[in-house]
Amino acid sequence: MELFPDLPYADWQDTRATLHRYAQIVGKIRLAASPRRNHWWSVPFHVTGRGITTRPMTDGATIFTIDFDFLDHRLDVAATTGGRYSFPLAGQSVAGFHEQLRRGLSAVGADVTIAQPRPFDLPDSDRPFAEDTEHSRYDTVAVTRYWRVLSQVNLLLEEFAGGYSGKTSPVHHFWHTFDVAVTRFGDALVEHPPSTDAVTREAYSRELVSFGFWFGDETFPEPAFYSYTSPEPAGLAEESLHPPAAGWVERGGSHLAVLRYDDARAEPDPRGAVLEFYDSAYRAGAGRAGWDIDRWASAGGVTDPVIEAERRSARQA
Questions:
Q1: Which InterPro entries does UniProt cross-reference here (predicted)?
Q2: What is the DSSP code string of 124-165?
Q3: Are 218 and 177 in contact (CB under 8 A)?
């Protein structure tokens, strides 16, 4: 399998728009039917060997999952009672997908109501999913390619996550912004002004440095690896990033560390370049925020003091 295949935003933007809305419908079911966890960790999807999954959830009586299969291009709704409902993803408008999923939930005995059955933070956020017959493009080749890139980045982020022994989020795929991310947290509490919305207060209640990958949108129409620090410490954008192709981008009044996907692909060692980028962004943000970087270091995902001592001895030999 090719590492980081070509992924031009323009080639699949219509398919991406449809898939994003499919994902939001399923994601809102996950939001309604899962126990809440800090920083909204209960809400995103996780990657599987065939697509992405909600993981098990419940309406209080029935335990069920919803899985996207991006090889056979189907949506599977399955309950622990043995009930199952499956339908094809291709050829469905958002309204059609919404109706098929409603039937699927009923078929497996799950009763879930979405509080706000319309897109979140998308241009058509006032239009109910049940009325969206506009978005129906679904290119199976493009979707499989998206999932394969997602799978590769997921494992890269898993590897990177192992280098930090402090509080760390799972590696997860957010359906509202359509990105995959992992976040490292510091100890400090963050106070927000009274006007801050509840979603933001929960997501950013601690100091953090986050790392991820997004597939592009209308405001930044290309895929890219990214990192940000919140709250943003003074002077962050003055820090150097690596490899040299990486840089700081001003967005929403703050700064993102960005390594464009095509720039990473052009590096002699793309995987190494992305890991180097994430590490440089972490050191920039954590260093400016005053974190004890050495204290939380976990080289190779190991905190065992015996193994650490053996490694130090080997390096000194």
A1: DUF5996
A2: TTTS-GGG--S-----HHHHHHHHHHHHHHHHHHHHHHTTB-
A3: no
Distance (Å, whole) CA 285 – CA 231: 10
**Ramachandran angles phi, psi of 197, nearest 5°:** -75, 160
Over the stretch 45-70, which tens digit does the pLDDT of each residue have? 999 999 999 999 999 999 999 999 99
The answer to whether 278 and 160 are in contact (CB under 8 A) is yes
The span from the CA of 35 to the CA of 103, in Å, is 24
- Strands 74-79 and 57-58, bridge-based pairing: unpaired
